[in-house]
Amino acid sequence: MKNFIKNLKGDIFGGIISSIVALPQALAFGVATGLGAKAGIWGAIILCFISGGVLSTKSLLISGPTGPCSIIIASFASLYLNDLSAIVTIMLIAAIFQFLIGLTSLPTIVKYIPYPVISGFLNGVGILLIILQLNPILGFDTLSNPIMTIRYIFINYSNINLHALLLALLTLFIIFLIPKRINKYLPSQILALILCTIISIKFGFEVKTISNIPVSFPKIFIPNINITKLTDYIPFALTLAIVGSCESLLTGIVSDSLTKNKNSHKKVILFQSIGNFICAITGSLYGAAATMRTVAAINSNALTRFAAIINSLFLITVLFIFNNFVSQIPLAVLGGILIKIGIDIVDIKLLKVIKYAPKDDLYVLIVVFLMTVFFNLIFAVGIGITLAALLYAKRMADKTNLKFESVYDVDIMNFEKKIERDYQHQIRVVHIQGQFFFGTATQIVSQFDEILGTKYLILNYESDSLLDISAIFALEDIIIRLNNQKIKLMLIIKNDDVRKQLKDLNIINQIGENHIFYNELDAINLAKTCIKTKIKRHNKKNKKNQKI
Predict the structure, then answer these.
(1) C-alpha angle 113-115-119 in degrees, rounded to nearest 5
(2) E strand or H helix at 431, and its extent?
(3) Are 297 and 187 spatial neighbours (Cβ–Cβ below 8 Å)?
């Protein structure tokens, strides 16, 4: 009973603290996407209640609208302005994609996404979030394009609303300068939201506000799905699903480390997808497990799913009881809060060590960053992963090479001295150092021009990695080249799986079963025996010719 009461106290307090963190962010993200504050706050309520409360993994997760997901929603919401059916359809498809991802093994491979790709995307999202708030904090309408935002400011700089700018600066001042001991119990963002809104109301500032949020539960919205436009929706939906899944999994890893539990990656994604599906059909904002809110709850001694339920109930209470106050929150204040969120998203850790980073990593990071901010964040992650994979393949190919070793034998040398003018025999052992795959196959094949004059080539593949299609075709190309040059090929394959692969692909039959070895010495001895036999035959033939 003591443990139950202790956990209950922690869950209640942690749920309230996390909801206080979530409130200003949910309102701000709703406004930033263009769907409105109502979509943001109900997205936080529904997603947290469903995926973190009713459905739950071992570790506590507080879910809701997040920066990266909101930026993606804003990108397609601006394209389908006033077409709620299209926006809801995209979020529904994203939830379905996320559910399918949860059924596969993809959640377990998120950890293999290169860090420069993640960092470049997050830095891009952070900077993009900051740029898009420049208009609201100056009293202008929010624009979804960073270049248009900056251009609009230069054109309309004389019409800056000083009241809005003052509130935004005061918001940032409170958020950045509030002492940590106060921030632990009363988050700076909610404090800035309350104080700046009171100041705006008290002094009658003429600024744009959230306006009225209907005091009612959201209704089910069934979109009219336009089949002809589904192909246009899919890239947005797939990106939203992937980014939301990645965020949730990363938050799950943080939660695991703090609570000493181990989440099921698949369940995390499946539960998030169900919550996001319900968010979509109610016109609420799609989201993910939020790291900041989850950490705030755990640091307040929350341990179970009950904290997520308390989080949602507290947000509903605030929405219904303090609706009038919420409707008067200035957009400039929300802009200031989002600027702080954008700064938090920026990967400061990487910036500290960026001058020591390899050039390849910097190339990937810069490309993903620039695409995220100025071109199209829908494709930024995909192109970043592709570029990182190609650069990795190049690095592996540069490290993989052929090491040529000539093998000599005293007897062979003596024989060869006698017939040096007429015939020369040589054995070479070639070690493939590194993995033989598509990135190295072409490079290795090109190096076989160096083996002219060799009669027995022993190819030693030292890796345990299976060959990919490119490497298999390259090996067949090598066999053909050697046959044309009348060079006998012997293979040293130590791994049984690689042997089986070559046998299934008929490669071994092309070389001959008797030319496949487990160790190098056996291959060398066979080559020596063959050479000695040929030389003896050649000598006998010469002696017969001399007698004749």
Answers:
(1) 115
(2) strand 427-433
(3) no
- AA letter at 370: L
Cα dihedral 318→321→325→330 (10° resolution): 30
> What 3-state class would DSSP assign to 548?
coil
Report the C-alpha gap between 251 and 523 in whole angstroms.
54
Q: Is 491 helix (H, G, I), strand (E, B) or coil?
A: strand
Q: Which residues pair with 461 in a beta bridge?
A: 432, 493
- 350-369 per-residue burial string, b: 16 or more CB within 10 A, e: under 16: beeeeeeeeebbeebbebbb
Strand pairing of 63-64 and 488-493? unpaired
Give the span between the Cα atoms of 264 and 48, in whole angstroms.
18
In angstroms, rounded to a whole number, what is the distance separating the alpha carbons of residues 312 and 50? 9
Q: How much is the mean pLDDT over the chain?
A: 78
Tens of pLDDT, residue by residue over 511-529, are 888 888 887 778 878 877 8
pLDDT in tens, 369-426: 887 777 766 567 667 767 766 666 665 555 544 444 445 455 544 544 443 333 454 6
pLDDT for 492 beyond 90: no
The residue to which tokens 């910036």 are assigned: 351
Q: Which of 117, 40, 55 is nearest to 382 (CA)?
A: 117
Q: Is the pTM of this model over 0.70?
A: no
Q: Are 136 and 172 in contact (CB under 8 A)?
A: no
* Higher-scoring residue by pLDDT: 56, 191: 191
Please report which helix (H) or strand (E) contains residue 460, including its range: strand 456-461
Domains and CATH numbers, the chain: 2-392 (no CATH), 400-547 (3.30.750.24)
Q: Rounded to an integer, what distance in angstroms lies between the CA atom of residue 503 and that of residue 498?
A: 9
